[in-house]
């Protein structure tokens, strides 16, 4: 009887390990689906099924482990959610506010599951590599949908691709994140194969025609180089600025950058002439700041920027700027609670970067570029936002636990 109980416990233990090992592949598959299917109404159910699979596996792990991880950054987000929920009572449009609250519930569940699923730094390294692989998968899927020749033609002519996959700007932002990860690997490991892989998601950035995505991809590359050589030595780059400037000028003359240059020129033209989509975006920011000044503490209710905008332009849409969307919707209180999460993450990742932690460096660069993309996007209800936050929170927790263990051993 005793032997049977021992064997049963061993079987259960083996089952727990097997289920726990499924968490990372399930999460990577889900992340890949975000790159390819998330905004596509025809295939979004594929992403939902993969999320349910990841959620089911992670729930089994939580039950078997009988332990839940709760970090300070998660508490900030829960407070942000509570404030958004409360804002429904003073919102201009109760229905719009409730819709955003429901979305936030889904995002927080995703965040919670990711924080529970990742229990080792090795797992996180695999997931970060999975983000890079998702960028390659996006390129392959793009070739299947459009054909390599069409992608090449679109890059040369300025035709924007991405609508058939998800949405042009969304595709561009996700591809830029994957390209940054590949470039960081190339710089850190000094392996040209990573730079070759970097080209695939970067081509999709160019094909999307997204100005913001192209900018964050290129700035991310610059930060990766500075992080590698060190901030103290980076001043030497100043000496080479004229040379780099000349090289950059000739590189930008390549036809593959024509579409991006065309969109930047159109933005400049819109600003100077007061016409076009670029000018509309600038006006939306100006109006948002005016509305924020009228209700700076509480805002007008989460997701209610569009209710104010409809009086200006005749239709309801979001701010296309995360900072303005939050300032108008939930005021300085909600804005501060949301960005306190990023402040917490950046502080701790910076501490890890001082110890020459390569994964912390990649996460820092990716997350700061993701925030930069919020100038042209509303990310607080984006699934990828909470994927990145969850990965960062987990990595900080595991790194801190590792340090505590080391100190304990030294004292012993």
From TrEMBL:
The keyword Translocase does not apply. Keywords: Ligase, Membrane, Transmembrane, Transmembrane helix. It is a multi-pass membrane protein. One of its GO terms (molecular function) is ligase activity. GO terms for cellular component: membrane. It is found in: Membrane. It comes from the Bacteria. Its main location: membrane. InterPro entries: O-antigen_ligase-rel_domated, WaaL-like. The chain crosses the membrane at residues 18-37, 43-63, 75-94, 100-119, 126-148, 192-208, 214-231, 238-257, 326-347, 359-378, 384-400. This is Lipid A core-O-antigen ligase-like enyme. It comes from Desulfosporosinus youngiae DSM 17734.
């Amino acid at each position: 009887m005793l032997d049977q109980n021992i064997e049963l416990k061993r079987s259960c233990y083996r089952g727990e390990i097997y289920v726990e090992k499924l968490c990372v592949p399930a999460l990577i598959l889900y992340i890949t689906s975000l790159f390819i299917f998330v905004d596509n109404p025809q295939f979004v159910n594929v992403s939902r099924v993969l999320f349910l699979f990841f959620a089911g596996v992670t729930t089994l792990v939580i039950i078997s482990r009988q332990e839940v991880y709760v970090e300070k950054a998660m508490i900030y987000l829960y407070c942000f959610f509570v404030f958004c929920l409360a804002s429904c009572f003073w919102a201009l449009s109760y229905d719009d506010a409730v819709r955003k609250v429901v979305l936030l519930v889904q995002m927080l569940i995703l965040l919670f599951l990711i924080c529970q699923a990742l229990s080792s730094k090795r797992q996180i390294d695999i997931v970060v590599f999975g983000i890079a692989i998702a960028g390659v998968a996006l390129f392959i899927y793009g070739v299947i949908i459009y054909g390599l020749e069409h992608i090449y033609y679109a890059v040369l002519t300025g035709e924007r691709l991405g609508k058939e996959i998800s949405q042009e700007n969304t595709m561009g932002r996700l591809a830029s994140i994957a390209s940054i990860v590949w470039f960081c690997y190339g710089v850190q490991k000094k392996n040209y194969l990573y730079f070759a892989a970097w080209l695939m998601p970067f081509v999709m950035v160019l094909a999307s025609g997204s100005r913001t995505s192209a900018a964050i991809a290129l700035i991310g590359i610059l930060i990766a180089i500075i992080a590698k050589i060190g901030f103290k030595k980076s001043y030497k780059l100043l000496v080479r600025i004229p040379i780099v400037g000349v090289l950059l000028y000739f590189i930008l003359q390549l036809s593959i950058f024509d579409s991006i240059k065309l969109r930047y020129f159109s933005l400049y033209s819109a600003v100077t002439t007061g016409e076009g989509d670029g000018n509309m975006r600038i006006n939306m920011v100006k109006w948002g700041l005016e509305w924020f000044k009228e209700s700076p503490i509480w805002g007008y209710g989460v997701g209610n920027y569009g209710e104010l905008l409809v009086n200006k332009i005749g239709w309801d849409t979001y701010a296309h700027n995360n900072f303005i969307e939050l300032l108008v919707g939930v005021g300085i209180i909600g804005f501060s609670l949301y960005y306190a999460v990023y402040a917490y993450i950046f502080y701790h990742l910076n501490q890890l970067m001082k110890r020459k932690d390569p994964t912390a460096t990649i996460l820092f660069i990716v997350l700061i570029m993701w925030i930069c993309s919020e100038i042209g996007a509303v990310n607080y209800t984006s699934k990828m936002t909470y994927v990145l936050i969850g990965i960062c929170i987990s990595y900080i927790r595991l790194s801190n636990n590792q340090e505590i263990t080391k100190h304990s051993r030294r004292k012993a």
